[in-house]
Amino acid sequence: MKKYFMILLILSFMILIVGCGSGTGSNAGNEVDERELTPEEIAAMEFWSEQFQMSLVSDSMRTFEEENRVSPERERALAMGAFVLTFNRESIRVFPLRGSARHADSIMEMWGIESTEDALEILDSLSSDEIVECAVDEIFHFIIYHGWDEISHIMRNEDVPNLWAFGNAKEMLIEEFDFTEEELFEIPSLAAWYFGRVAVVARYGVEAGFLEEEDTWYYLERAANHASVIYNCWRQYTGAHILGRAIVYGNVDDFRDALRFLLNHEESPFKSIEFHD
């Protein structure tokens, strides 16, 4: 009976996660390459990681930030979308996009945004009180506490890519970014995933011509205020966002360099922007 109860809970979790989001993507690319990397491959990864870090603190980036700087309160709101925007080598201290603006139309298409009404509806949904209530915390904490081995034993089903990705993301946070099991278990909600998308939809939506910047700040600040109530710091918010992204989209391996910059680099905005207003 306990076995079937847990299966029901997990399946309910899957349905609710999909139902709480807007425009979620596929779960492709979750297989993990278990072979050891060659020294040449490791050197190449380190080189490109260094180049990635340098691009975010270059003189041209600093000049761009100084010319477009927003208030500290608005910096905090924009920083909620740090993961995707840093991955795209964009500053999270300013509203305009510098280098990846050319992707705005394709990003809007991917999320099914075809009008101003669509964009505003998504911003409203992602920053709403209802999103906070979609956390399904009991199932999330069951996975964190018992680990992937017990989950996979219960379900006996390898065709659950988002849960596999969740386990991989958890392992990455622990092994590469020094999160502890206790830290992850104390994450109160995965709603950070939704709050992060608000800043991305807002900035790319403006670039694509669907939104005006001033129309987005209400939603940006509402999402940031929700986050500051739920989480205690940027680190906890980061863990919640990455685990949430793994469940919804799948593999998060591509975000390693962005995470290294945000969590570890001395010039990371997370080092200077206060999490709570």
Explain how this protein is built.
It is globular, with a radius of gyration of 19 Å. It has 16 helices and no strands. The N and C termini lie far apart (47 Å). It is 68% helix and 0% strand. The chain has helices spanning 2-20, 39-56, 59-68, 72-79, 82-87, 104-110, 116-126, 129-132, 137-155, 161-177, 181-185, 192-207, 213-230, 234-249, 256-264, 269-272. It has one domain. The chain is an all-alpha fold. Residues 1-32, 40-44 and 154-159 have low confidence and may be disordered. Helix 1 packs across helix 9 (137-155) and helix 6 packs across helix 12.
Topology of this protein?
Elements: H1 2-20, H2 39-56, H3 59-68, H4 72-79, H5 82-87, H6 104-110, H7 116-126, H8 129-132, H9 137-155, H10 161-177, H11 181-185, H12 192-207, H13 213-230, H14 234-249, H15 256-264, H16 269-272
Helix pairs in contact: 1-9, 4-13, 6-12, 7-12, 7-13, 10-14, 12-13, 12-14
